[in-house]
Every structure is written in structure tokens, then in C-alpha cells.
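Pilot study result, target chain (164 residues):
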Amino acid sequence: MTDEVPRQPQHDDVERIDGVSLEEYAAISAVVAEGTRPFGDVLADFRLTDKQWGPITLAWMQRIALDVQTHRELAKLPTVFSDAFARAQDRLAPLPPLTVEDWAALTLAVLTHGSPGPALKERQLTTPDYIRLSRHFASLLSSDPVAGRRYERAFLAMQPREPA
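Predicted structure:
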């Protein structure tokens, strides 16, 4: 018996499922998640049917889960999927124009409501907008100390004050 970790598949080594690569699966999933078009129309654009999509989704989810079970923190497929989904989603719509302070206000509103729904509705944002914004501000706030301090100041200034 050996403690060797099995060879990890590279994303370009992974066989397609019913003709759909992992990157294509992520791109299709991003369009579906955007929710702006009928599901059947999205699938038709990719020459797929609803009957094919269910088994393709199940097979990709099983393959990703197996990669995680086999390789644990070294699994590649979840990252390949996530990165491809993000790239595809970002191509579908522009980033809503929010400042760091706007993001702090949205974050506080989500925390106050306990879910994003009401805060997004108040700002006429969609769930896909929120996901794009989350990625954008996670990157910005973790790499730009000035933006991070602006966010912190705004977030703290908006906190409800304790009664004296």
C-alpha cells in the first residue's frame, strides 16, 4: 500500500461529458444563472436539450465531488469550474457601478436583513450582480489598502449606535 496521491487530472485532460467540457458546462451554467432568458433557449444556443442537461449536470457534479474526495485540498476541478463560471458570468453583464462606500452599505444591509434579497431589491440589483460585486470587492479590498480603509470607515460609520 502506498500513500501516494493519485495523479490529478488537468482540466484539459478531463473527458467531455456528452460533448460538454467543464469550461463549457461552467459557461452554460453562468448563462442559466443569469436568469435573463428562458432555460430552453439557453440550452438550444449550446445545441443541448433539457433531457441532456440533467444528466450532464449530475455527471459534472459527481466528477467534481470525486476530485475533491480523491485529492482533497489539491483538487483542481472545483477551481477550474469556479474560474470558468466567473469569467463567463463577467462577460454577460457589466459590473454595477458601486463605490467602496456603496459596497459597505450593501454589506451592512445584507447583514441587517439576514439575506441579500431585500437589499438587492432596494438597489435594483440581481443575484448575479451581487456575485460579480462580491468577487470584485473581495479582490479590491484584499489588494488595495486605501480601499480597505475606506470600506472599514464607511462600514463602521453606518453601524447602529448603542443607546447611552
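One observation from the pilot: Confidence is low (pLDDT under 50) at residues 1-11. A full batch analysis is planned for the follow-on phase.
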